[in-house]
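Because discrete structure vocabularies remain unfamiliar, we reproduce here a specimen of the format, pairing a chain with its fold in token form:
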Amino acid sequence: MNELLTGAVPALPLRFFAEISAIPRASLHEEQIADYLVRFAAEHGLWCYRDASHNVLIRKSGSAGRESEPPLLLQAHTDMVAEVRFGRVHDFLREGVTLVREGNILHADGTTLGADNGLGVALMLAVLARDDLSHPPLECLFTAAEEIGLVGAAAFDYTQVRARRMINFDAADERMIITGCCGGIRSDLTVPCTWERADAKGLHLTLTGLCGGHSGEDIHSGRANALAVMGKILAALRGVTDFRLSWLSGGDKTNAIPRSCEAILLPRDLSAAEQVLIAQASALEALAPSPKDAARTLAVVREPITRVMSQRDTDAALAVLAARNGVFYWKEEGKLPDTSRNLARVRTEDGALAFAFSSRSPRDARLEECVADLDALAARVGGVTRHYARYPGWESAADSPLSRAWQDAWHATTGRDIGRTVIHAGLECGIIASRLAGLDVISVGSNAHDLHTPRECAELDSFARVYDTLCACLGQM
């Protein structure tokens, strides 16, 4: 085990988490983690199936006397969101993450931790590795490319699965059993650009220090979106002097609230522009009011400009940055989002500005509204859209047999009660339930925070409680 985890509990699943943390496993690059899982199955004498998408299914017979019971499917995804702290360099294609332990808290050194969903993978491996547990026949499905639109789960051949009850481990709150989630869709909006030569001093704006977050679970928490904030800054500048953009870049993963954004521009009045932007830098708290965004900064530096976009393209960029973002509709009780959209990324490419969005809703009609809204925006600014990676929502009976089994095991293990909830994030449960008729499915997990950001961390004592609950649940179901 990684030395920093020596003496930490639960020892066995943490050993596996340390091992997989050393493996590069960014989305669409799961070859090495799939190789690891295949080797694990061979070393433990377990049946294993791997498909072309690097999904892996491992089967384990029921313990003595339980071989003929109905099988149980355990499921987690192997990929992780690859985010790095601004100013740091990390090659997620060749490097794993470096774990850092501070008492009960586990995080990574300057990158996302990969607790989402590495902790779930580690739980499943620990159960498969043990010979002293009482359990029904187990089918453990490790899916790939979840973080970019549930791609692996959508591609898997479910005729390989016999179970009609499933525990997913992609939750991040031990106090809740998840019994439903949103559907979602990803969208690209591309605006063709015309470039003109320039030879003048311009301004390079660098907005950093926003905390970001999960674009589903944190979309209603007041965390600022760096692209939307940059749009407001540029709109304030437009009120004083005209300018044209030379370059625009920000955000990264479509399921993460963007933490930074950069723009290079050529203003008509350089001095006036600097004064406005310095004032904006001093007033950032009003644009990013969340306490978690307290490290926010806007740097303004003069820089030579050799080319600029046309005025029309600059106007188009500002229109997209000002697009409707965040929560569109709330649930009836008014505390949780029903429908939302995240403006996730912008890149300046040869001949175009490329924007990326993710939309979420449990209602198909409202997802269609998000699609139509982006199509209309593209038409106004002379752009084109592409909508892809659509996945279904899901909702199970809150008091299903599997939900009751976890509730009873949690209470027996901790002495505490547990709630049930439907979340705004997307889970693979929806896809899997749509492919396995009559599936009883829940999602559970241990406490983790600031997912999809370099601030991501996990509580070790919570992880131990969930592991103990899983073992108890397997024994009593």
Q: What stands out?
A: The chain is about 30% helix and 30% strand. The chain has a mean pLDDT of 95.
